[in-house]
Amino acid sequence: MEFKKKILENGLSLIGEVNKSAKSAAVGFFVKTGSRDETKQINGVSHFLEHMLFKGTDKLSAFEVNEAFDKTGAQFNAFTSEENTVFYAAVLPEYLNEVTGLWIELMRPSLRDDDFNIEKNVIKEEIAMYKDLPTFDVMDKCRSLHFDGHPCSNSVLGTEESIDNLTAEQMRGYFANRYAPNNLVLACAGNFNWEQICSTAENGCGKWQQQTVERKLEHCLGSRKEKRDEKANLAREHICLMSAGVPAQDKRRFAASLLGVIVGDDVGSRFFWELVDKALAESATMQFGAMDGTGAFYSYIRCSSENMPKVLDTVRSIFQNLSENGITEDETRTAKNKILSALVIKNELPMGRLIDLGVNWTYLNEYRTVEDDIKAIKAVTTDDIHSLIEEFNPGDFTQFSLGPAK
Amino acid sequence: MAEQFDKHILKNGMVLLGEPMDAVGSVAFGFMLPAGAAVLDEGSCGAGNVITDWIFRGAGDKNSRQLSDALDGLGLHRASSVVSSHITIGAALEAGNLAEAIDLYADIILRASLEEDQFELARHLAVDSVLALDDDPRQNVMLKLREQFYPSPLGRSTVGDIDELKTLTAQKTREIIKDKFNLSQTIFTVAGKYDFEAVCQQVESLFETEQSKELPVVTIGSKAGKYRHLDNDGAQVHIGLMTSTVGPADDDYYNARVAISVLSGGMSARLFTEVREKRGLCYAIGARYHGLKEAAGIACYAGTTPEKAQETLDVITAEFNRLGEGISEEEIKRAKIGLTSSLILQSESSSSRAGAIGSDYYILGRVRSLDEIKNKIEQTTVDSVLAFLRNNKFEDFTVVTIGPKEITVK
Prior knowledge:
The structure holds two protein chains of two kinds.
Chain A: E1 2-7, E2 13-18, E3 25-31, H1 45-52, H2 62-71, E4 75-80, E5 85-91, H3 96-106, H4 113-131, H5 134-146, H6 160-165, H7 168-178, E6 184-190, H8 194-205, E7 226-230, E8 237-244, H9 253-264, H10 270-276, E9 281-291, E10 294-303, H11 308-325, H12 329-347, H13 350-364, H14 370-379, H15 382-391, E11 398-403
Helix pairs in contact in A: 3-8, 9-12, 9-15, 10-11, 12-14
Chain B: E1 6-9, E2 15-20, E3 26-33, H1 47-54, H2 64-73, E4 77-82, E5 87-94, H3 98-110, H4 116-132, H5 137-149, H6 162-167, H7 170-180, E6 187-192, H8 196-207, E7 227-231, E8 237-245, H9 253-264, H10 270-278, E9 285-291, E10 296-304, H11 306-322, H12 329-346, H13 350-364, H14 370-379, H15 382-391, E11 398-403
Parallel strand pairs in B: 2-6, 7-11
Antiparallel strand pairs in B: 1-2, 3-5, 3-6, 4-5, 8-10, 8-11, 9-10
């Protein structure tokens, strides 16, 4: 593995990790923007904009864009979260330069009115689709309730109303600032030629203008509110719990991930033994999500309406026991084994490696090898996890449930 | 360079297959047990879902907790699945722990405790997972579609049937495990970093038994009707559509795969372009190949708001029907590179290879090399794909919808 980096004069970061033994290569643009960077008036614009980047440039129509990707056999897509918009592709090594060139072109889209109006329908269909998927819907609603008043409470998709009211002009304004080169990272992983990618990027992105791009960073302890929505067509209770955690920049993020696995891995965790193994809940998981300047633990539980009171009592006693008695050395050891093997397996694929590479650069401005992360996980002690439990009592949570009418 | 495969057959007939991968430090393995949803007796739909839970609730000299701790201690990522033909249980893990993992899986497959009280919990969870399908119409519609499309019992639900699960007993389930975990018909696969000789010795010492001559018997019955609608007061109508095509062993298999790729391989493919890009009817739209040993189809999904549902279905069927009228060289070229590229990208994952070699062996009786598949894809042409489409017209569409509105299937 060889790490490469170059920062262009306009602030664009180019990074790469070359692995000559890989059969493929992956490339991605990591844009530091998401729903937390939106105002209420333009809620949903980051995600809508992600769609619009595929609609072409002054030279390329939407169909020509799709055709150009498909000609390389790329597996490509994009996603938007509260704070990142990521465009990525995995290809055979011989096509990486071409696909990188294409992404570069798309990073300066036309954002035509006609395309904007057609794509509005697709966005509204996507909103409708998630309404029918309560597993996602409840997480989204809980996030808004937890981050009450904090920018991370903004929904990624927006609402039908905010999307209806959004104009192409507003989107162009948002784009002009948020997609400035100093707010972008271009990352590559796998089998590729670094010099070639560098020159493609310098030629394609060198003239982009630097801008002042801001983001409000504020830690959030969460509202700890409780709310329930009912829908006549639901069959099960969907419960989401959220509590405060450490930010992505905090070294304790490794301990926090281990805590998530100890409490809520899909097998062998405390949730598993107390809720799933006993068939009180069909699914019960918790994980840690590190964010820019803040962080949170998310739990998702699905059960029958009849079991819900008992499930919530059990959850409370799990967290109480955690605060009072802590965890065992065995639990720490097992959680480490699980996280380490998942990390190794994920990073064997250039596409998996690309995501870690880009995310680390976005949050930390730092290159971390897989070995660095392995070392950091191995170094976490049971006491480190105890300190976390003490500081961020995960039993102090925001709760959103979505279920059938009672 | 052509990759090599490892193969060894135990005296009892159990097949051991391996694909070494130089670039990885992980290993993935799977036991394909001939106990899939379609081979179970009538009245036990969902038993596979119960079994994949129950056998992990204690095995050998370990109780449920000890077994789980032992598996977790190896940093092992469990993967169990139930399909029409098999129950597959396996895992991906760091290569150094493979031998210990196989020992534990031998206990799970051959010496599961199968206690009565644990059965009730496993059965309860299986019932819950069927109930939860009502809250996941996207997954539900595709399960119901396979039930509707394949002649019974090939498309039988792999999740389960509520009524049948409610009457399933521990005794009946024990019998299923005894009868269907037939080692003579089991395929063991391993991919990644491993020593095949050591694996063979270990598996042989653990799984060598008397040979059983019994073969799984599936009596294929009739097909259900053309259209089924399930009412659900949701935001979208979820449309599943399926039509017959040739099986994986057919000479025209690669022509079929290329044709489907023209229809729905990438974002420039026809369905995405016509349904989403030009008309904005859907967010999610796509079709893919779904093949069993006995039958195969092209399965398409689209989710759309009620007022657009009819138009969506009409545009989709029109695109299927238009395919045989003409395909450009460029479209074939994109379809071919898309298929080849996805094949190679998947070949970097040990889990994906362990699954692929097993399914090849079960369906074709041999493992195809990546080069063979690449060459076959390469040999297809506009003419060969069009000839295939002329001889295999899409005549019958089976449609299932879940949502607030029924549609008309012509």
